[in-house]
Each structure stands twice: as C-alpha cells, then as structure tokens.
Specification:
Layout: E1 24-30, H1 39-49, E2 50-60, H2 71-74, H3 78-91, E3 96-103, E4 107-108, E5 115-116, E6 122-128
Parallel strand pairs: 1-2
Antiparallel strand pairs: 2-6, 3-6, 4-5
Length: 129
C-alpha cells in the first residue's frame, strides 16, 4: 500500500471517491457496509473507479455497533445481510454482475453440527461488466 485516503462516506449523498474512472482491479469494503446511509450511491461510485472486469468484495459479519448501524441492518440475520448487500450491488446502477455470497466462517465438526468458531464472516463479490 503506497497511498490511502480517509473519507466520510455518510457525509454527502453525492459521494465522490478521490480516484479516476477505471482505476482499480479490485475494491474491498471490509466490515463497514452496515454503517452506510447511502449504500447504493457508494456502490455506484465503487463501480466508477473499478476497471471493466474488476471485482468488488464486501466482507460482513454479524458483529456491529448497534447504535451506529442502519436500521435495515439491525433487524436482519446473516442471510438477509447477504441478500441486502447483493441487492445494493444489483440495484446501484453500476453494472455489476456475477453477484455471489460465500460463508468464510471457521467451523468445527461436520454435517448439521457445523458450529461457527469465533465470529462469522461472509463475503459478497461481484464483477463490473
């Protein structure tokens, strides 16, 4: 990492990331999408800075600051969170396709008794067309 920027993505609905169009092969949003008050606009901006064929990876857990997360998030379970993030990507107008969710949680045992060890972790990915 040779460069970084700090930006409040909730400050303005018309968010603009400080990068040129088609700048990145990959964009990652880790454990913070549940705090965005304008997630569709942020995801559309992510699409703007991604190169065609670029990937976005959004990591989520069910751990959060309850007083800071948006209401849609606080009353939902892990599966609903994955659908919500997938919907953000689908409906943001950024041209995302191949939207997938994957459970990355560490588990013990097998079969129906596959209990999560530690915090659950999920990733929702998509590709910019």
């Amino acid at each position: 990492l040779t460069e970084w920027a700090v930006q409040n993505l909730n400050e303005n609905k018309n968010v603009k990331l400080p990068y040129e169009n088609d700048s990145f092969d990959v964009v990652m949003c880790q454990l913070s999408i549940d705090y965005l008050i304008h997630p569709l606009e942020v995801m559309k901006e992510v699409a703007r800075v991604l190169k065609p064929g670029g990937k976005v990876a959004i990591l989520i857990s069910n751990r959060l600051f309850l007083t800071k997360a948006v209401g849609l998030w606080t009353g939902s379970d892990d599966i609903e969170h994955a659908y919500t993030v997938g919907s953000y990507l689908h409906y943001c107008g950024g041209g995302f396709g191949d939207i997938k969710a994957e459970d990355l949680s560490t588990r013990k045992k097998s079969g129906k008794e596959r209990m999560i060890v530690g915090d659950p972790l999920y990733v929702i990915t998509a590709t910019k067309s």
